[in-house]
Amino acid sequence: MAAKISGSVLVTGSNRGIGLELVRQLSESLCPPNQIFAGCRDPNGPKAKELRELAQKHQRLITLVCLDTTNQASITEAARVVGAKLKDGSLNLLINNAAVNIPGSLAETGEKQMMEVFQTNTVGPMLLTKEFLPYLRNAASQPGAQSEMSCRRSAVVNVSTLIASIEKCPETFHGAPMYPYRVSKAALNMLTRCLAEDLKKDGILVMALHPGWVKTDMGGPEAPLSTEESVKGTLNVISSLSEKHVGTLLDWEGKGIPW
Ligand SMILES: NC(=O)c1ccc[n+]([C@@H]2O[C@H](COP(=O)([O-])OP(=O)(O)OC[C@H]3O[C@@H](n4cnc5c(N)ncnc54)[C@H](OP(=O)(O)O)[C@@H]3O)[C@@H](O)[C@H]2O)c1
């Protein structure tokens, strides 16, 4: 069944990997959202060529937004640009996808690596959600809005990972220590839990989603999943979110992952 995601959607880090495929499948869906905002650090640069071509093909649907999620001025400006284009000032779905991984063992990891990854993977989604909160609240409280929580009403999806699961660490650690990445995403999980508690009174559904191990620059060529498969599953999961998923961590097939 095709994923039903309507209204307006913002995806961060959308010029390659999972982010680019999210924008592609959303825009090529039989029932696409009304507006897709594709956040990208350098929309005019060489790394955004495919995204520009996609936006060119779906001019009425996709708006490219210059957005560096580690830079408050960039986030504020992006919110101004997106806000001016939103219908009724409402953003229905924010997908915090942008992230970095500096793989490192304990010996290879220092303050610089920890701080850089934490800034992108944890602080970025926090600042983004805060800045776009007025638009998410508007979406949740529109007179015509459904009373149930869903991605069509108002939702924040934080793209997390299985390897941030503290319970699963004994199974996933060996061969892939990745200190900065695991720690930053475990903190993102707690951010998700806090935001979920905080924002449910506003009708905004917040959850975290593991896209699987995916063939991208980050996942590497040995990953079992293509971006197409991962994103198809991911969009189906997002499409079926309801109140019972507030503050959960699910994988791309909808299965729960322990914190
Ligand atoms: N691939 C996997 O196996 C896997 C598994 C579990 C979870 N995930 C999660 O899935 C999400 C997408 O991963 P991916 O595999 O698609 O990674 P990727 O191929 O490395 O792409 C990362 C994206 O994030 C963007 N980005 C990084 N820092 C940014 C910043 N400061 N501001 C704006 N954009 C920024 C990159 O933009 P630039 O081109 O400008 O660098 C790029 O578009 C991430 O949250 C990742 O942690 C991936």
Automatic annotation (TrEMBL):
GO MF assignments: oxidoreductase activity
Cited InterPro entries: Fungal_SecMetab_SDRs, NAD(P)-bd_dom_sf, SDR_fam
Domain of life from the UniProt record: Eukaryota
Cellular component, GO annotation: cytoplasm
Pfam family for this entry, one: adh_short
PANTHER family assigned: C-FACTOR, SHORT-CHAIN DEHYDROGENASE/REDUCTASE
Family note: Belongs to the short-chain dehydrogenases/reductases (SDR) family.
Protein name: C-factor
Taxonomic source organism: Clupea harengus (Atlantic herring)
